[in-house]
Amino acid sequence: MMNSVAREDSLVSSDAKFVARNISKHFDGVYAVNGATVSCADNEIVGLIGPNGAGKTTLMNVISGVVRADEGEICLDGTQIEALAPEHCARMGIARTFQNIRVFSKLTVRQNIQVAHATGLRQRSSKRKCATEDELIELLELTAASDLKSETLPYGTQRRVEIARALALGPRVLLLDEPAAGMNEQESEALLQTIREISRRFGFGIIVIDHDLRFIMNVCDRIYVMHMGEIIAHGDPGSVRENPTVREVYLGNRHRDGSPMA
Amino acid sequence: MSYLLLSARRTVIPAIFLILCCVAVVLFGEGYHVRVAYMFFVNLVIVAGLQVFMGNSNVANLGHMSFAGIAAYAVAVLYTPTALKATLIPNAPFGLATIQLDFVTASVIALALTAVIGWLSGLALCRLSGVAATIGTLALLVIVHVVFVNWIDITRGPRAFFGIPVALGLPWAVGAAVLAIFVARWFRDSSDGLQLRASGDNLLAARSMGVNIQRVRLKAWVLSATIVGMGGVLFALFMGTIAPNSFYFTQTFLTIAMLILGGMRSVSGAITGTFIVAVGFEFVRTLENGPEILGVQLPTMFGLTGFFLGAIIVIFLALRPDGLLGTDEFEDHWAAFRQRLRARK
Ligand SMILES: Nc1ncnc2c1ncn2[C@@H]1O[C@H](COP(=O)(O)OP(=O)(O)OP(=O)(O)O)[C@@H](O)[C@H]1O
Ligand SMILES: [Mg+2]
Predict the structure, then answer these.
(1) Which ligand has an atom closest to residue A224 CA?
(2) What are phi and psi of B217, to 5 degrees?
(3) Relative to the CA of A229, which ligand 1 atom is closest?
(4) Which residues, in sequence order, are bridge partners of residue A33?
(5) Does residue B345 have a pLDDT over 70?
(6) A26 lines ligand 1 (CB under 6 A)
(7) How far is A107 from chain B (nearest CA, A)?
(8) Domain assignment of residue B116, given as a range
């Protein structure tokens, strides 16, 4: 088993608004996530990369309440979140998108946003500001598609619908699971600008998972590298790019993709 | 409440159609036609009620007829004259044999009772999803049926409860059907209806968007039970006779076939399906009795109607699971049609 390179305290920045500490989750004795810690400050865009099966999505599932962790704690604004179900996490302000797209396929783009708006409005305190339907549609460049059923849209557009929908919750932290997957060069370039714009406009922290290293290196302030359920490296894009362990994992171990052994 | 008005406006066209049907039957029909038309409206109320829960939540429901039964028995017990009840149900508990209400009060109490029982059963059922939920609703149907059969003091058990004075006619049935359609549209368009539809579309995504699944399901379940209960009241106050089997598998499958054929995801689908199956059912029932067509005497074919309903359910589930109208309402189809016309020009 590979040892964590970085110690836990160095993984959490001092101004972190959101912290997931020492998260572990195993499936049938196989650790998908093994003591991973990630954090995110306001206005920060954090990347989470790693080979297939590294446990990135599982970590995100734990954070958003979709999967229950075996161990670990999640703190938002200094308070520990006891909520264990996805709807509680959403109402606490943790919004997410899905790697395998999960738009409401029979609803229009606008209705997709309305669903999240309706539940967000119930909970939103006055300090959590939230964009209106039309602002979100414009921000994610969905104007032409706004009254079309989501299932009729191309994948790239559906991913943007998921982002708009997540923003409609008025979140305090946003998790994006491979938002650029299935997008062409121009689309992913546009998405990159959009993510920056979201960060600038709303000011909450964003955690992005993606396999496109160029995309991640361009958009992120800080990057975590995950391998076999553990965070094996972390730092700014430059230092991660030069990190020998990361290079080994990405180049040397390509053929060993898949389930990590506990 | 602008969408209340919108739902009202969207109900106008089906309402006009239904009222025209009613007027035609009243003007040109005989007693038999009135009966068939009345049952059509009863079924329409029940199917619209079924759509409210099943169509929006995408959870199959086999228990809805139990609410029609509860409301029907309740109104029967409250409205039947005490003189008759003295021989029908002399041992009725809570002094029910000695009270007699007017039919409006009796109906309101019957619906309130149905809503309460709907709420109680919903507390348990709305926690379940998928197959477990469907089996749970089936269990509800069987439980309520067993109560009807065995609580002889109040229901007369398998012997029919007869002698309920006939209080309603076609205009009432049309009014109830229009009301049911309006309420179903209003719920579907409402914020809770939208959240429920989202959960029916993708349960996990809906939860991750903060939808409280149990709350929206329970709301739809109680509303659905109450509307279906209205169908039961209509039935009892026109037929004058009810029995446990009036609210069991045959009716369950008839109404489910109606909803599936039209498309359960829209109220328009519920209306369309009810109409087509009702017409088809009458036709098949004629065949069942072995009529003479063009001089050829057909044999009687018992069970043909059951076969017909089963075939509709299987064929549509296999070939067109979204039903004839898919997920869209009439006005959505109309808008799409106009768009296609414009595109062709
Ligand atoms: N529900 C589950 N049941 C069993 N094993 C699971 C489950 N979910 C994930 N796993 C396993 O956990 C490991 C981590 O999977 P995860 O999806 O988190 O990886 P990932 O880093 O997101 O990979 P990818 O880049 O391919 O999306 C994998 O070996 C996977 O097979
Ligand atoms: Mg993944």
Answers:
(1) 1
(2) -65, -45
(3) 14
(4) A25
(5) yes
(6) no
(7) 7
(8) 2-244
Determine the Cα–Cα distance for residues A212 and A218; give it in Å rounded to an integer: 10
* Residue B220 within any structural domain of the chain: yes
Q: Give B313's contacts (C-beta < 8 A, 6+ positions apart).
A: B253, B256, B257, B260
A154: left (phi over 0), alpha (psi -120 to 50) or beta: beta
* Rounded Cα gap, residues B198 and B155, in angstroms: 41
Alpha-carbon gap, residue B173 to B179, rounded angstroms: 10
Q: Which residue of A has its CA nearest to B202?
A: A104
By C-alpha distance, the chain B residue nearest A88 is: B210
Domain A2-93+172-255, CATH? 3.40.50.300
The pTM (predicted TM-score) of the whole model is 0.91
List every span in chain A annotated with CATH 3.40.50.300: 2-93+172-255
DSSP letter, residue A4: P
Ligand 1 close to Cβ of residue A108 (< 6 A): no
Report if residue B341 sits inside a domain: no
**A230 band by pLDDT with thresholds 50, 70 and 90:** very high
- pLDDT at residue B43 in the model: 96
In whole angstroms, what is the distance from residue A101 CA to residue B113 CA?
A: 43
From the CA of B245, how far away is ligand 1's center (Å)? 51
Beta carbons of B324 and B261 less than 8 angstroms apart: yes
B273: confidence class by pLDDT, cuts 50, 70, 90:
very high
List, in order, residues 6 or more apart from A166 with CB less than 8 Å away: A95, A96, A97, A116, A174, B209
User: Number of C-alpha atoms within 13 angstroms, CB side, residue A50?
Assistant: 27
Lowest mean pLDDT among A19-23, B48-52, B207-211, B295-299: B295-299
For residue B304, is it within any domain? no
Determine if ligand 1 sits within 6 Å of the CB of residue A52: yes
Q: Which amino acid is at A186?
A: Q
Q: Each residue of A118-130: pLDDT tens digit?
A: 887 655 554 556 7
